[in-house]
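Posting for a labmate who doesn't have an account.
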Amino acid sequence: MVAFVDTDAPFLTLAAVSASDLSRIGGKAFNCGRLKQAAFPVPDGIVVTADAGDEAIRALPRHPWFATAPPGVRFAVRSSGLGEDTAGDSFAGIHDTTLNVASEDLVEAVFACRQSAWSTQARAYREARQLGDKAAAIAVLVQHMVPARVSGVAFTVNPVTGVDELVINAAPGLGEDLVSGRVDPDEYRVAKRDRSLISSRSGVPGDLAEALLPTAQVEMLAALLTRIEALYGVPQDVEWCYDGRDFWIVQSRPVTTEGRKLQVRSEKLEVRPKVEVRTDVEWTRANLAEVLPDQLSPQALDLYERILEDGERAFFGRMMAPASELGPIVKSFYGRLYFNLAQLRHVTDTVGAAFADTLRSLGHPEHIRPEDEVARRPQPGRLLRAAPDLARLIWRDINIEKIFERNERSTDAAVGRLIAVDPRTVPDAEIWAVFEWWQSLIPDTLTAVFIMSAVQRREDILRKVCRRVGFPFERLVFPHLAAGERSVSSQQAFDLVALANIARGEPMAARYLRGNDGGFADFRTALDGTAFLREFDRFLARYGHRGHYESDWALPRLSEHPEPLLFAIRGQLDGPPQDPAETAARQEAEAVAAWRDFTATLTTWQRWTVRPRVRATLRRLKQQYVWREKVRSDLTRVVAALRVWHLALANRFAERGWIDRRDDYFLLTLAEIGRAIADPAIGAELRGIVNGRAAQLAAERTLQMPLFMRERDLPALLEHRSETRLSGASLTGFCVSPGEVEAEVVVMRDPSEFARMKRGAILVAPATDPSWTPLFTMASGVIVEVGGMLSHASTIAREYGLPALANVKDATRILRTGVRVRLDASGGRVIPL
């Protein structure tokens, strides 16, 4: 047998297990612990680790955990081998499980379970899989026995057809007859999207057969199953039982894979579906990395993964492929969200567009292949199926102004409702009702965001016209996007400059700002009664909801930490005043010149036919960019107001001792919070969940996740990125705002480093969101590693008149603060001087 060094406690409760324990407790126990800590209904349990000695096992019944068990409870004793329940090997049915074990028989049952690793069938399984003796190590999971009326197994992908639906098998009692094959189970097929029953079949023939699970119970179980799959991100084989009131999850394992074929294994069923695991799917987080932190709070990650998946699929409908073909639209890898490029390619192929334009928009021009530049002729059958969804999108585009106005009214009403009540004065249940109400608003909000962001069709029209008449697309479009009405994000920068001019004219304010060390802790006291402070508060009322990675409500807002704003204003005082009117006049003149030069390339006929369409398309495109920034700002307004409600609840959880610190609250999912509110007895379990999540975040924090990848290449990419040598790397990128400037660079990875910024320097950052806007007022140019035409850096730089280059790979690691460069944004390059 394998020898172990007993360096840790031999027993762990499910509430206490973490990822670092996986090598000692095996997949089954770890998965049960993970599910329980994620607030799924898992029977409470304790794990005898694989390295536990015989003497320790004999002392198991004296562990304090047993004192918390209900009187007369019996136990399920189940194996949790170190090689079990992985994506490659399940050991299903190989090791022993003993049910209904009395307290006095526990030790014997644990020893029998461990010994089953050396049975003939276990040895044969390991040999067939070419697994060493380490796979024989057995941890044992002891759980409260559930008095099950109905038990079964469920799959989150159809194990026969491979269709992306739920298949639930159910049998009376503990399910032993189902395991042995002595009964034919009831079977329920359920749609994932709305949990509607597709079909049902009774295992008992005849008209008098009654379904073991009524429709309401099927829906309840289906909701659990879809949440479990969302937690793991891959199809799951789940064992469950029902005690007449509640469902309990007693095991979840991934489907196993052999080569590229999906193979579902369980103790009940072993079949091979016809669907393949698509590990060649391409994923991107370029657009998401700009607006979301490298590591979202688990609370926000859980919600966004669900709502973006549902929202994108509802938006595109049948223009996207089923998840069973190309996978989900949104997926998290090591806590980072990615968009499925295969699905986006499917959409462009469906409508006959060129995928190269999608890649440019996202900021991946280096991954464009020659065939991507060609718009494929749509397949008639696919286009016909998607016709209703395409018609719906066209209708929404026609009514885009009405959708924008409706979103404005909805946002104002939502914020008004949230700020009208002090959440500290209302009970937990009322706060939870507000969270549920907000989630009901999300579909309409996402529709507005998606519609305003759908600029590619208009850009395609302009790009084709420019190609046909021989005029540079950037020369025509960029000046028109920069001129005219400013987006709310750029207006923030211009209003900040106006604040600096107010301070410049008020000696008391100017003296304080120039003399401050950058902390500004006493600014309210020092500036009390000044005109500057009154205007600064008006600025915060308009923009204070914004903040660094503002989509995550776990992070503070500018209204909570306004120091970067005051620092940027101080930077303005160190040089001559900026004149926004001069900038606007120059941009208007450049747009007029671009239009004149474009018109000069047209024939007389084209001036009558092409020019009006281009003029209208340019105007709508500009308006759409402005509206896009506004609806995203509106979403953040609601999120910021909602953060106050979250903080009220977070403080209560900390006061009750459920968590150690207020911000630990954001390590919990909304479902876990809702369960604790509904049943305060669960509150004691939250600390264990928080500790596990914190450990997982810490373990994943240093990962340098790629912006573009194939799923199968991710392990190699992570290893390669950690060893990358960057000396001599090329500095090229994608022009998002034309122009040229020579200056030294300031490299910043986070706007919290605002005190390092110098006026007139070129700002170099991984990506920027509106919280960086104050620093744009001090910069002479912008270089970012992430982004395309749609990025915040692009919009703000264009409207503020700064040369900007996006998609400059590893710029923050190659460049060093103080190095002088020539930023040739128009030429797409950075030249060290």
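Reply:
Got it, the structure tokens are right above this. The longest strand covers residues 247-254.
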